[in-house]
Amino acid sequence: MKDNILKKEFSKKDVQRARNLVTGNTGARITEGVGYTKKYEHHIEGDVWEENGRTWTIKNGLKQNITKMDKFKKIGKLPLFCPNCNTLMKKHLDKKVFPAYQKCFDCIVDYEAQLEKEGKSEEYFNNLKNQHIQFAINGYKEFMKDQMEQSNANYITEAGDVENWNGGKSKEELERELQEGIEFLENLKVE
Ligand SMILES: [Zn+2]
């Protein structure tokens, strides 16, 4: 009997603690009694807040970790000079092609023209296509990993606004989607 009461108390406090973590209400007293306090903050698109030692925002309806978003942006960061020809990279196209090619647009054009002359362009373009697909797969994995972490954190609250941030998808659903997505992209690769 005493065991049961202890278990009940523990689970109530545990749930409250978890809710406080999710809603950023970490300083709040863990209340006794039935139910939980309704006093948690609602966050809307563009809000920025501290929670569980991290900074969060809501972008496109999704709760997102700002540190991670910054890291994600850095993947596509453009160095000042092309590592291949050392000229200043400033064109819009340089920015677009650099993450996949690691050189400027002019370098790519020159290189491809050279391969064409040597009759090696088919192999090159097949490889390139596969590289692009792999690049997409890596980015997709990273994105989905992030979504799954959000999904776990949000799952705790069960009710209301927090759950809606990720469209209410479970970790299992997201994992299945991830596998299907990877499979689809892998099949696009050239043998
Ligand atoms: Zn270059």
Structure commentary:
- The protein is mainly alpha-helical.
- The protein is built from seven helices and three strands, in the order H-E-E-E-H-H-H-H-H-H.
- The chain has helices spanning 2-23, 66-75, 92-101, 105-118, 121-155, 161-164, 171-187; strands at residues 48-51, 54-59, 62-65.
- Strands 1-2-3 form a three-stranded antiparallel β-sheet.
- Strand 1 (48-51) and strand 2 form a beta hairpin.
- Helix 5 packs antiparallel against helix 7.
- It is flat.
- It binds zinc ion (ZN).
- The site of zinc ion has 8 residues, from helix 4.
Helix and strand element order: HEEEHHHHHH
Mean pLDDT, as a whole number? Answer: 71
- Name the strands of the widest sheet in spatial order: 1-2-3
Class by alpha and beta content: mainly alpha
SS field, number of helical segments: 7
* Proportion in β-strands: 5-15%
| Shape summary | flat
Distance between the termini: 66 Å
* Rg, alpha carbons: 24 Å
User: What about the largest sheet?
Assistant: 3 strands, antiparallel
List the helices and strands and how they pair.
Elements: H1 2-23, E1 48-51, E2 54-59, E3 62-65, H2 66-75, H3 92-101, H4 105-118, H5 121-155, H6 161-164, H7 171-187
Antiparallel strand pairs: 1-2, 2-3
Bound molecules: zinc ion.
